[in-house]
Write a structure and sequence with these properties.
- The chain is mainly α and 89 residues long.
- It has one domain (4-72).
- The protein has helices at residues 4-10, 13-18, 22-38, 45-68, 80-88.
- Helix 1 (4-10) packs antiparallel against helix 4 (45-68) and helix 3 (22-38) packs antiparallel against helix 4 (45-68).
- The longest helix has 24 residues, at 45-68.
- The protein starts with a helix and ends with a helix.
């Protein structure tokens, strides 16, 4: 798997600009998915290449965040405080 730094070096200069903003990548992917739906669930060759490029960028973002410890990987803690308070009382 490519790291975000290596990936940004391999892609075009316009993609390197997008690399700074993950929300832009998500918005463009969402736009391409909407186009895919309206085109009877088919991409053109250029659209497929762009979507694959954006998908690699997204994966690189996630891997970078995991390396930096910015992604929570584990069980959900929803409701845990309430259970702990009940046990203490």
């Amino acid at each position: 798997m490519l790291t975000s730094w290596k990936l940004s070096k391999q892609l075009t200069s316009t993609t390197e600009i997008i690399m700074n903003n993950s929300s832009t990548v998500l918005k463009e992917m969402q736009s391409l998915r909407q186009t895919w739906r309206t085109q009877n669930f088919n991409y053109t060759k250029e659209q497929q290449e762009r979507y694959d490029e954006l998908l690699e960028l997204r994966k690189a973002f996630i891997n970078f965040w995991k390396e930096e410890g910015r992604v929570w990987v584990g069980p959900s803690n929803i409701g845990k405080k309430k259970e702990e308070e009940k046990e203490e009382n």
